[in-house]
User: Fold these one by one.
Assistant:
Number 1:
Amino acid sequence: MATETVSARPSGGWISALNTRHHRTALNLYMLIVLGHWAEHIAQAIQIYVLGWPLSEARGVLGLPFPWLVTSEWMHYGYALLMLIGLILLRHGFTGRSRTWWNISLGIQVWHHFEHLLLLSQAISGYHLLGRPTVTSIIQLLVPRVELHLFYNTLVFIPMVVAMVLHRRPRASERSLMRCTCAVAHQW
């Protein structure tokens, strides 16, 4: 009769690993991507409102040498999808208050993703919302696109940062539920 060896490693594959032993690294990489994107929106806003550049020339930092980045609905949709996937995949590593704030960010990103899906579908089909001359999102009917996307990214970013701060500094009850090593050691 053969004896089976049971592995002490938790099951769940790469998603489990992403939310346990690799959670801190994954969050840091994700935040680097988010900050890079957010910096592009801020650079574009500075180009428009501080430097007085016309909207057609205000393309952020990467958009200056690569103008298609600003006009590509595929690129914008891809980033919105990447944000959504990251928020979903990394969610399982959060507990307590940090999970609540992460979920708020996720909820806002679901809407933001929907708006980009709407923009992409208009770009592909050639049919624009309410017969507009260009692709238009729902909230863009009220707020210009540059300001809207800076606002959306801010709305997603703030609860994400709150979640990460609370995740790094959990209460004792939250720390006991954590399966990752993201929490900083007590300093008192």
Note: Residues 119 and 125 are 10 Å apart (CA to CA).
Number 2:
Amino acid sequence: MTTSPRDRLIVGLDLPTIAEAEKIVSTLGDEVVFYKIGYQLAFAGGLEFARDLAAGGKKVFLDMKLLDIDNTVAKGVENIVRMGMSMLTLHAYPKAMKAAVEAAKGSDLCLLGVTVLTSMDEQDVIDAGYEYDPHTLVLRRAEQACAVGMGGIVCSAEEAAAVRKIIGADMALVTPGIRPTGADKGDQKRVMTPAEAIRAGSSHLVVGRPIVQAPDPLAASRAILAEMDSALPA
């Protein structure tokens, strides 16, 4: 696993337009090498932008949270492999994960199983019809993802230490809901600071609003990178 903070920080381009995303990427320059593109930007031309980023040497985490019948998932993954993406999310349902793993076989695409969204707490999970609390559901899905050969897991940093014990040292453990000390939590309910998340076992941190909405995004990214570096083993 890489020990460089620059390879571990994923900046979430959760922005409404390509122009705004381009401005952030230009502002951050060589300081940031990894970007996340989710629904908001994807539906504003973000898929072509993702291809451009990859072609320009950046790593791209395509946060599509796929879930569908096996064939549809597989065909989608095959095309995403051709796009040159580095990471792709899908909901951690065993059949979908198996189909994706088979479709991505032989490629460098890291498939990530989304366990429980960081905006959800125990009542939200109950309301969704699950019999488990968030922590238990995350661990169950981590076990299933590991069993089918996924490349990694997405979970909150609160579950990172427990998940790391299940998946071992080699799988990616990606944690959104990262908020520097004193930052607004927004709609996130299960959050940690960058240093706490690294110490808990996270391999990659997804940071969106604390960087892209900061008065000085470059300074914000540098502060987060420095905090991550302070928590990494010497």
Note: The first strand starts at residue 9 and ends at 12.
Number 3:
Amino acid sequence: MPKGDSGGVIHNPEKYQTLPLGIVLRRAPGVTRWAKWSWKAIGVLPGAGDGDWRILREDADQTDFHAATVTLELHGAETDAYLHGLNAQVPCIYVVMRECDGPHPFDVVLATASPYEAQDYSDSGEEIVEKVAMPAGLERWVQDFVDVHHVEEVFKKRRRDKKDVTLREDGIGDARIKQVADVYRSPSAARKERLQ
């Protein structure tokens, strides 16, 4: 495999940045008798070390866990998506999780600043996607990346074909209008009219 090639996906290291991001999940009592616990992503920890479901805070009935640390990746080709997310009323990081069997209820798959990528995972129906408000420092980091790498696409108006609109084809049109060469009439009816 050539240097700088990661499995067929070519990326430019000058237009690529990463940051370790800790994911904080909150466990609270379930609101129905069928679900013992309710889980929600409530925060992110930029620059965090390993999480591995470390307890951060415990209340009487709620527990916050540093569930995992994933790598937040920014790609220069995705700046439109990041810009869309930054212009939202509340800029968010999207946490993608999968339910799993084991000692912990979820496997944190990734975190992304792209609402488009988050929508793709939501559409699959196999993952759980949660929005978490970006801390101010993380929002500034993403904005700085967009400022450096975003290139606004110039709108190009599509040119129409030069076609003579005064040309007329007989037989094409409204079925209610009688025409000699009407495509909606049977050939025998057209012959009868000509003979009369």
Note: The chain has four helices and nine strands.
